[in-house]
Automatic annotation (TrEMBL):
InterPro entries: Arylamine_N-AcTrfase, Papain-like_cys_pep_sf. It holds the Pfam family Acetyltransf_2. This is Arylamine N-acetyltransferase. It comes from the Bacteria. Belongs to the arylamine N-acetyltransferase family. Coiled coil: none annotated.
């Protein structure tokens, strides 16, 4: 947990959640949904060349005090801190993204992070991925696990890795042995600094809504509801872009970053 003053109640206020009375599956579902509906996935820091940190106090300051969001590693690390503060047994797992929304690819090894939470049975939790489930997934579950965000299946590879399939698409593969935050330093340094890594040149932002999700990819705003794309359009006007970004994600930008021309959302 670190040696700083981690205020669980302040974190719960940040996500609009009451302190659970019990450490159980129902409370975990509640906390995961509140987090995904309150703390956006966003890569603003990378676009502005202000590289983030996975260290406890810096993360707490960014997400709780400054009311920002973050990338997958930031969001899942922060959520793990909250869960540990509430008494949940949490293990960090390293993962590799295998689909970017348009086609299969081999993402950076350890470029993604997911959480294993031990309760009556082990659960998979992810609050930092565009195609993540809204509720925890049963690690021992077989067959489809239906969720407001789609249909999920978990498979184990011959080597013992965990694979997540969402709506028929293989999204990521994770190792099952525990990882420490320091294990992600090298891979994330590459993702946050390399000109070949898309996160340093393209803007992503996304937050869960009661009926689905609202995402921004560069200047393209896309809204999903009940699993279907509701609309998608390019925000060509700077004033509208800045207003929408602050309204949706709670982040005020001084100016629109220099972004690639994109016509398709995610």
């Amino acid at each position: 947990m670190g040696d700083f003053d981690f205020d669980v109640d302040a974190y719960l206020e940040r996500i609009g959640a009451e302190r659970p009375k019990r450490v159980d599956y129902e409370a975990l579902c509640y906390l995961q949904e509140r987090h995904m509906m309150s703390v956006p996935f966003e890569t603003v820091d990378l676009i502005l060349k202000e590289f983030p940190s996975l260290r406890d106090e810096q993360l707490y300051d960014k997400i709780v005090r400054r009311r920002r969001g973050g990338g997958c590693g930031e969001l899942n690390t922060a959520f793990a801190l909250l869960l540990k503060g509430l008494g949940y047994p949490v293990t960090i797992l390293g993962a590799r993204v295998l689909h970017n929304g348009k086609h299969a690819f081999h993402g950076q090894f350890m470029g993604h992070m997911v959480l294993r939470v031990e309760l009556d049975q082990p659960y998979l939790v992810d609050v930092g991925f565009r195609w993540a489930s809204r509720k925890p997934l049963r690690l021992r579950g077989r067959g489809v696990q239906k969720d407001a965000h789609g249909e999920y299946e978990l498979f184990y590879s011959p080597d013992g890795d965990l694979e997540m399939v969402h709506n028929g698409v293989l999204r990521w593969r994770a190792e099952m042995h525990p990882r420490e935050i320091e294990d992600f330093d090298g891979p994330l340094w590459f993702l946050w600094t390399s000109p070949d890594a898309p996160a340093t040149t393209q803007l992503w932002a996304s937050i869960v809504t009661p009926g689905g999700r609202v995402s921004m990819f560069n200047r393209v705003l896309t809204e999903y509801e009940n699993g279907e794309r509701k609309f998608s359009r390019v925000l060509e006007d700077d004033a509208e872009f800045l207003q929408k970004f602050e309204t949706l994600y709670g982040i005020r930008l001084d100016a629109v970053p220099d972004l690639p021309v994109t016509t398709e959302g995610v």
